[in-house]
Amino acid sequence: MLKVLGLIFLFYYIIWPLIKFLMKGYVITQVHRKMSEQDIRNQQKSNPRKEGTIDVDYVPPKQKAKSDSLEGDYVPYEEVKE
Q1: What is the DSSP letter of 13?
Q2: How far apart are the C-alpha atoms of 22 and 14, rounded to whole Å?
């Protein structure tokens, strides 16, 4: 019976606070790591731009022109004499 009480005392006053201390340190390091990763991502995303500049994110591929087609649309018209 005395051994059981000794083990309970040992666990409650020595092992449990040690586990809490180690887990708290682990959680704090993980939080700092995630925050630093997020800061790095935010710095990469926010590129400072000068005022009045234009950034083009997508440029469509050029299509090969057919030999018999003209650039642009052809609109038929008639001249009207007044």
Answers
A1: I
A2: 13
Buried b (16+ CB within 10 A) or exposed e, 43-82: eeeeeeeeeeeeeeeeeeeeeeeeeeeeeeeeeeeeeeee
Phi/psi for 17 (5° steps) reads -65, -35
The residue ranges of DSSP E strands in the chain, in sequence order, are: none
As a whole number of angstroms, the distance between CA 15 and CA 25 comes to 16
Task: Answer yes or no: are the C-beta atoms of 20 and 12 closer than 8 Å.
Answer: no
What pTM was computed for the model? 0.43
Across 23-34, b (16+ Cβ under 10 Å) vs e yields eeeeeeeeeeee
> How far is Cα 1 from Cα 4, in angstroms, rounded to an integer?
5
Summarize pLDDT for 4-34 with one digit per residue, the tens.
Answer: 999 899 988 999 999 999 999 999 999 999 9
